[in-house]
Amino acid sequence: MKIAKIFNTKTLFAALFAFVMAGCTNLDEQVLDEVLGDDASDPAGALAAAYDRLGDGTFTSTGGMFAMNEMASDIALLPTRGSDWGDGGKWRAMHEFTWAPDNAIVNDNWDRLTNGITRSLTAVATINASDAEQKTLMLAEAKGLLAFYMYHTIDLFGQTPYRDPLNLSAPVEFIPAGEAIDQLILDVEAIIPDLANSGEQNTHNGRFTKQAAYSLLASMYLNRAVYKDRYGSSFNFSEAAVSGSGTDMDRVIYYTSLIIDSGDYSLESNYFKNFDIDNSGAPELVWAITQEIDYNQHNGSNDLAYNTMERNQKCSPTNRGTNASCITPEFYATWEGNHNDPRFHRHYQYTDGTWFMNDGTDVSVPATSIVPGTSLPWFHFNRGLQEGLQHGPKLLSSASFEMVGDRIKVSPLVCEKSTTTPMDFTPALDFDNPTQAVHAQNQINRGVRCFKFEFDPEDGNGSGKVDIPLFRLGGIYTMRAEAYLRKGDAGNALADINILRTSRTRESLYGNAAGTALTAIDMDVLFREIAFELYWEMWRRPQMVRFGKLEAAQPGSAKPATQPFRRIFPIPQKVMDVTPGVTQNQGY
């Protein structure tokens, strides 16, 4: 099989995933040195396995990077809701900051990331030993994936395992973040000449291209000062760059500008189209997890939408949400005075002109929108932050909505597991014990919900085709704005943030009004604006660390004041028990 054909289109990635499913499904159960001793003779399959780790729960599941970077922040949490979501306290621990080395979420994500490292090292070794048609390109991509997994591992765990993939007798090393970050930067810079520009050599935004490398380098330089002084009270963002001229912030500006100034990407006026089911060609996606893969060899995930929707919110008669994660009261409060921002909320308009207002004035919507491949009607909920009494279709049977003639009837909804509780999403969580994120059964409506990612009605409760952004143009602008402001250049920082604000427009219901510009900016305003642009996209915890905000209490959502050691997570106890050369992180 020719490598060029394998990488021709996104859908043909499916051919590679046969290798993944057949030969690499047990990698989580193997330690690093065992896997690197395997004979992986298929370079394309080895690279596909490394890519697959991105989407197999790591960056697509609520329990993956979302739990680590959004729940452990001021954006999101997942309370225990009556009889649901107790799970030994693992979800609550992420926002109450009580995790320990035996926390299941911490353990699972260590496994996912180190498995990504393993798969990438295996791909490097396999491709290097091959005579593959696109050997140079594939090798560069494998090294880029390796750097990406290692980067997230040092960000979350303060250290990363590594072994020379070309020397199978080499020992596994555990490299501290302060040392690893410099080498990762040099490694990614070194592969840029061998990477393709996105769209060239049959690549697309699901591949690690030059533009993905620029984005990763900007992010690494932005956080480098944190890794050099993980527990410090301030960070030196003016340190000389690892290579090139100027400081870390100069390099952030350089790499982000390569993307912004290229003209290859553009900001989407309808902000939520970046997160639609059919977003594969969205003009903002620099690097994304490609989920629309056929032949049932790689299942996509709809969890970032499914997890937050209530169980009685049904896009089709055969699926539902699961009533779990929600927005913190603290984050919701930052939107005060900004509810007209196009990124806050957007109404859906049906083809006959009907707007779903979700305010009690809706009577019905047309049933002309059909779930693909079925005859089932597709009900479209609004997007963005959902607050207040919710409305939608009621289910009459396993395969039918309540109808008014040939239209779907819209009614006020109640919670599925507490049918006397209106589905009134309240900004306040009002926990009975303010230190514990626990709700009684008749309190499961509490918490504003986030419908940023579109729910996919075709693939049921867990699957989905939305491509998940890893780097997006909106985020690139926020990185550049932050670098400008840390250099004292408020003018350029304000300009970048205002480009984001004014490029987004509201729906035609509101005259397609553009977002409003700010007149001034400082670090607190920038911190808020970054959240407005990137909420629910798995970047918030490191932002809070950089801005010195992570340790503060969030009384409305059960997060206490914490110590700096909580900026990183513990190495799982199961790893400590069997792995020589690894040291537990401070405080654990």
UniProtKB/TrEMBL annotation:
RagB/SusD domain span: 284-588
Compartmental location: Cell outer membrane
Superkingdom of the organism of origin: Bacteria
UniProt keyword list: Cell outer membrane, Membrane, Signal
Signal peptide limits: 1-22
Single GO cellular component term: cell outer membrane
Major location (coarse): membrane
Cited Pfam families: SusD_RagB (PF07980)
PROSITE patterns (UniProt xref): PROKAR_LIPOPROTEIN
Sequence similarity: Belongs to the SusD family.
Protein name, per record: Glycan metabolism protein RagB
